[in-house]
Amino acid sequence: MTDPRLESLLQSCPDLRLKTDAGDLEHYGRDWTRRWAPAPLAIALPGSVEEVQAVVRWANAHKVAVVPSGGRTGLSGGAVAANGELVLSLERMNKPLGFDAVDRTLVVQAGMPLEAVHNTAKEHGLIYPVDFAARGSCSIGGNIATNAGGIRVIRYGNTREWIAGLKVVAGNGELLELNKGLIKNSSGYDFRQLMIGSEGTLGIVVEATLKLTDPPPSTNVMVLALPSFEVLMQVFSAFRERLQLEAFEFFTDLAVKHVTAHGAQYPFEQIHPYYVVTEYASADEAGEAAALAAFEYCMEQGWVLDGVISTSEAQAQQLWRLREGITESVARYKPYKNDVSVRISAMPAFLAETQALISGAYPHFEVVWFGHIGDGNLHINVLKPDDTSDAEFLGQCEHVTKLLAQVLQRFDGSISAEHGIGLVKKAYLASTRSDAEVALMRGVKRVFDPNGLMNPGKVFDL
User: Fold this and answer.
1) Other residues' Cβ atoms within 10 Å of the Cβ of residue 449
2) Where would I find the FAD-binding PCMH-type domain in this sequence (predicted)?
3) What is the pLDDT of residue 397?
4) Which stretches within 157-284 are classed as H helix?
């Protein structure tokens, strides 16, 4: 270690773990986008809130930018360190700190993996209901930084609905304790909500007080085969009217092709163009009867061609793998990802226009569609052909994203439903936020991060 700045960092924080090996710099300097070459100064792994504060104060003194890092499972470049930044990884701060049975809250360090949060809540007979496929590797701090949604938003909402309090190290090194677990608190601005979804640009979440809730009633899983894109919302409406839905996800035949090649089991004899996996409450015979009635009604309308209902927990997991395994199954193709949302009521018209745009724009590319259709969130994954260069592929995808952003603007939608803006979607922020809003965002950042060192270049440029 020859950089005098790092030597001074260790002098001010002697117990701090610091990594500078080339392999570590590459590993910690990027997220799942793989689009930017990682080039961080070093990787700091604090073990306490006090060490996080010391690192941030050192960064201000030496004018070194800081990139907060959790599980780095993001898809928008929000955890990329490509310009000599110090990566501040929270992976050592990964423990539960306290459970309150009366308040039904769980205090955790920000580096705790989501799956570990689920398991800890379960030990107390409760659940933390935010969930998605990357649960084993993503961290709760990263979930908070992007207001992560996932597969159960239709039932439980996004991350922000489940955050009762936060501890945040602001851009100047000051520790902020926000809301402190209160249910009601009308005493001024709620900076807790401001931090949720801020992508580490205002400060670093170091602890979170999570709300827990009762486990859902017994559930069952059904996979449906659909004849067309257009009937998705009719099927959703029919099932929502008759059942208590926990999740309602859709995917296409191309998604099935890739995920079954990756090990998932296909439940039907024939291939169909579109699919839905839904999970619903089925605590008694009445619940199962309602599910069967919804299925039969949709069959009669011609909206559903076939279906299968899980008969065991193992089969339910197999059916869910058809949806949850998609991202991993297409990863080798370096997919270009769009993560967009509109109001549920606008989804039919938006789907029709977007499908026409995408099919016309990508005649030679495979496009894998899937998403949380029940909460208006659509994922569009464009797969790079082997005979197309990265630059050519990216250029064509960026052109289409500009057109897609214009469609979203007309529908009052969002260019980022749950992945964040990061670096990938920064150019399209104006399709979602007005000039006045972005100007206010810049002003807020200057207050919390006066030297502009917290995850600079993400979301917008100062």
Assistant:
1) 24
2) 36-215
3) 94
4) 191-195, 232-242, 253-261
- Which run of H or of E encompasses 98? strand 96-100
Tokens standing for 287? 């619940």
**Model pTM?**
0.91
pLDDT at 1: 57
- Cα–Cα distances (Å) from 299 to 234, 235, 248, 306, 442, in that order, read 12, 10, 17, 8, 52
Range 67-94 burial, b when 16+ CB lie within 10 A, else e:
bbbbbbbbbbbbbbbbeebbbbbbbebb
Find out whether 428 and 415 touch, Cβ atoms under 8 Å: yes
Q: Dump pLDDT digits (tens) for 420-457.
A: 999 999 999 999 999 999 999 999 999 999 999 999 99
Neighbours of 109 (CB within 10 A): 24
Residues in contact with 71: Cβ distance below 8 Å, sequence separation at least 6, in sequence order: 113, 134, 137, 138, 139, 142
pLDDT in tens, 171-184: 999 999 999 999 99
Reported in sequence order, the residue ranges of 5-76 that DSSP labels E, i.e. its strands, are 17-19, 42-45, 66-69
Res 307 pLDDT > 70: yes
Q: What is the pLDDT of residues 345-393, one digit of tens each?
A: 898 899 889 989 998 999 889 999 998 888 899 999 999 998 999 999 9
Strand 105-109 and strand 203-211: pairing?
antiparallel
The pLDDT tens digits of the residues spanning 147-195 come to 999 889 999 999 999 999 999 999 999 999 999 999 999 999 999 999 9
Residue 21 confidence (pLDDT) = 96
For residue 282, what are its two tokens?
A: 């089925």
Q: Mind listing the pLDDT tens digit for each residue in 12-70?
A: 999 999 999 999 999 999 998 888 999 999 999 999 999 999 999 999 999 999 999 99
Q: Structure tokens of 53?
A: 């504060």
CA pair distance 216, 303, nearest whole angstrom: 28
Angle at 122 (CA atoms; ends 246, 124), nearest 5 degrees: 130
**In this structure, what token pair is assigned to residue 227?**
């004849």
Q: Which domains does the chain have, with CATH numbers?
A: 4-92 (3.30.43.10), 96-211 (3.30.465.10), 219-327 (3.30.70.2190), 330-437 (3.30.70.2740)
What is the C-alpha R_g of the chain?
23
